[in-house]
Amino acid sequence: MARVVILGAGVSGHTAASFLGEWLGKKHEIIVVTPNSQWNWIPSNIWVGVGKMDASEVIFGLESVYKKINVKFKQAKALSIYPEGSIDTESGFVKIEYTGQDKAGQSEDVEYDYLINATGPKLNFHMTDGLGPENGFTSSVCTYSHAQEANVKLNESIEKMKNGERQKFVVGTGHGMCTCQGAAFEYIFNIEHVLKENGVRDMADLVWISNEYELGDFGMGGMHLKRGGYITNGKVFTESIMAERGISWITGAHVSKIEEGNIFYEQLDGNEDSVDFDFSMLIPPFGGVGLKAYDKHGDEITDKIFAPNGFMKVDADYTPKAYEEYRASDWPETYQNPLYKNMFAAGIAFAPPHLISKPMSSPKGTPINPTPPRTGMPSGMIGKAIAKSIRDLIVRGENTPLHTASMANIGAACVASTGMGFFNGSAAAMTVYPVVPDFEKYPEYGRDTDLTFGEVGLAGHWIKHVLHHMFLYKAKLKTGWTLIPE
Amino acid sequence: MEEKKIINKRAYKQGYYPPIPTGMTKFFRTCKIWQFFRFIALNLKMLKVVSKSH
What we know:
The complex is a heterodimer.
Chain A: E1 3-7, H1 11-24, E2 29-34, E3 38-40, H2 45-48, E4 59-61, H3 62-67, E5 71-82, E6 92-98, E7 107-112, E8 114-117, E9 122-123, H4 144-162, E10 167-173, H5 181-197, E11 204-209, E12 224-227, E13 230-233, H6 234-244, E14 247-250, E15 253-259, E16 262-267, E17 272-276, E18 279-283, E19 286-287, E20 292-293, H7 302-305, E21 343-345, H8 377-396, E22 412-418, E23 426-432, E24 453-457, H9 458-475
Parallel strand pairs in A: 1-2, 1-8, 2-5, 5-20, 8-21, 10-11, 10-18, 11-14
Antiparallel strand pairs in A: 3-4, 5-6, 6-7, 9-19, 12-13, 15-16, 16-17, 22-23, 23-24
Chain B: H1 23-30, H2 32-53
């Protein structure tokens, strides 16, 4: 009997655990280690952040769901990995510390035959002074509890506007190295929609601040879309959406410091300025969760397994190279660690070989460029590919070929939807294929311009609602869940 | 009677340059019949993206 340990239960970890449980749960041991007892469908946190959805509608308890497919659940955080085992044991193991299940604070060594690191991001609010809801002045929608707090603050601002006090909303990225612009993008439109619903839109100034070189970059180097008889850059599409809603924007900005009511930033052209705010939601930069690794003798080998940003090295080409030399083939396919073949990293936890957007910096040398997005659809597909590889390694033996899910071969969808009514909502629906541009396959724009598109309308709003219910249904492993694509 | 000042409030501002949807575009964005067909079209496109990705 083989034992597979999965660290993390976000989109990629939960997908991998679900399929491994379904395929191997009866004959082999599948263990999920995650510090949270609840699963959170993060894309819908946006609606929690504007009070359109209750937190209970975007979360559910994991343990009971895993019981359906014989997956063991340990509510704990992983501290360190011992891929070679130790002097006492040959088997690799993970040192964990419980955060729940009446064992909080207790530690345990969990041995594994195969390990999936799907720990997701550490929200690095500390990288910008004054950033974040815990020790700073800005809100966040990265977790459901953050989104709940954001909604409370948003409502306070709405009340002030109803009493005649003008308010300024600043939404975007809180550091020069952030990713996940899509979440902030969706949130600012939801704020605008809620302000209109409350009849106070004319009392509000909305500002978008982002580390993108131009609007519509989204950490993917932008995209090209067919619109009105032209192939046009996503910048035009995105600026149009902003301008239509009366939202102004600041781009190429690294937020350097936040004080109460003031955001200080530095831009790519060297300009240093500040923007005042009454309410602000800024996405933090992401990093690895800080796992350490040790060899058999207890010597630290963290730098061999993890990149400096804390993400795990996999089968990517990490050779430093110029932007013009970036290749689709630099991106990992199997997500297997090159040193320890029984370790894989999925979703945000794997170290990208380089940026997708062009690396840029200010005259002072501050890097200001979005980092690559690895959430949602790509995360799920990577999780499933790894689950298939591990299933085959266990069932067919070590020489079986691994499954692949390169981000240069998979697409992504982003639907920024506002409103909850069936007929009074709207959405900007966008898809890209592939996520990582492949200029060998698509020499002109790096992407398939038939499958890379953007459209605003009610239809996207319906799609977003369908996706919300469909993915929660799937994640709860209800009847027929395996038929729903990632 | 005080003369009403008419100013070009948009020119040379950010919002002056991007395309703004016309009334017809806005109508089609909310037209339920048209959007029903767009819903099918968008779903088919997304399914194509998903199938090419798997």
